[in-house]
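LOG
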Amino acid sequence: MSRPLSFLLLVLLLGACASRQAEGPSLTKDAGWRWEILPSGSFDLAVASAPPRSGGDILVVYLEGDGFAFVHPRQPSLDPTPTDPVALRLALAHPGRASVAWIARPCQYTLPAHGRNCATPMWTSRRYAPEVVEGMGLAIDTLKARAGAARIILVGYSGGGALAVLLVAGRHDVVQIVTVVADLDLGYWTERDGLSPLAGSLDPVDVAGSLGAMPQIHFTGEKDTAVGTDVVASYIKHLPPGAPVQLREVSDFTHGCCWARDWPILAANLAPGW
């Protein structure tokens, strides 16, 4: 490849990255939310929170998906910031009166200035590693304290749903899990699609046995070819008998479409105090 062409490609990549980096802060600013980079465990995490609401003692925390982890299946990206921050859009469309916050995944929106411990495995094979769960849990603690909340509802989009399940296993303040197109059985999913095992990551199915009393609602898309209803159904099989779990497959929805658009309808009255 010639040097001028290489330089042009680099300029285009940097421009696309800058555009992705700017979208989250722009969306939250337009909504009147607070945006910040929060030191949390091993990482600096991008977080956003709605203005204070009088919705009781519940904080609803939305967890972002895996983002732009790969350019193509065998080439990791240089920056996992999402091309479309779906979980942030869900949070901004939250239909209830409870306090609301959002947490990005490690290394999203923080590179390069706040890229502490941001090696490529943190958005590829180790995207659900113990240190990721720990860092996001500490961020939840901070946001909970600020909101004056006593109870947490976790809402995870895609890989954020896997983290929601993993986070609950180590907490006593979560009263409900809601996931949207989440990869909840990593072993089944990677084997089904011929993907490399996520070495170093925790698997939600390994904690499912301890969640027999946890209310859970899992949304899937009928036309989701990235994850699919079968992955969530496989996870549900690992829950104890009688667990309060609901599987809601939405007709014609894909992995990305059209969750944020229809979230106020889909998520209406999901939980008391929601």
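LOG (cont.) second protein
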Amino acid sequence: MSVNYESRYAIGPHETKALDTKALRDNFLIENVFADDTIQLVYTHYDRYLAGGAKPVGKPLPLETIDALKASYFLERRELGIINVGGAGKVSVDGEVYELGFKEALYVGRGHRDVVFSSDNAGRPAKFYLNSAPAHRAYPSKKVTKAEAETVELGSLETANHRVINKLLVNSVVETCQLQMGMTELKTGSVWNTMPAHTHDRRMEVYFYFEVPEGQSVSHFMGQPEETRHIWMQNEQAVISPPWSIHAGAGTSNYTFIWGMAGENLDYDDMDKRAITELK
């Protein structure tokens, strides 16, 4: 079997206050998103969300079901979002082949039985970042390029948060049940993401940081606005953000991150904003 997974149980803000650095990382940080010729997954009990990566090098990788789903195949009751952060590759969905280049996305709807990942060149393998959520109905699969994304430019160099948000798999671009994914690219000289910070009690989120230059890091901030915590992260790592937590970060360089979320609604702007001066 080419799929490895682990489960992460949901914990609340009061329990999180008592965690030391190691326990905080053990609960929320996904250190190893990619491994050669393996699909790595973390099954989180926040909205039953799955996050991980597929890195086919020497062979194609089929997306096999895992015991936690109690399903005869992976997408029996789920939808899947894919963004390629590596070399060119292909995703076969019940025999229909989608070619995915760097930073291109694919939505795969509920009910597809056979999903297989492959790379065009083993010397520069594809890295398919994966997010999945439960789905109540089947929507058509759809590839979305950066050119087809809904984009928003925010922030400024003066506040070190000049960035472009690429909304790839959102309901204004592709029909989904609850899964939404996009990619935020920080401009040179900017390091802060998602500032001012916010929470959204109606959905959880996962951040995946990449294009972090060698020797640089990102400090991801989480926790309730009145009592924040931080997790230092390296390139190609992900972090789980519970509904009660802020999710923001600052790097020692500019970088790119993918956000994925699921929960009660599909309203991207449904968030409870907190002023920077309120954070503690």
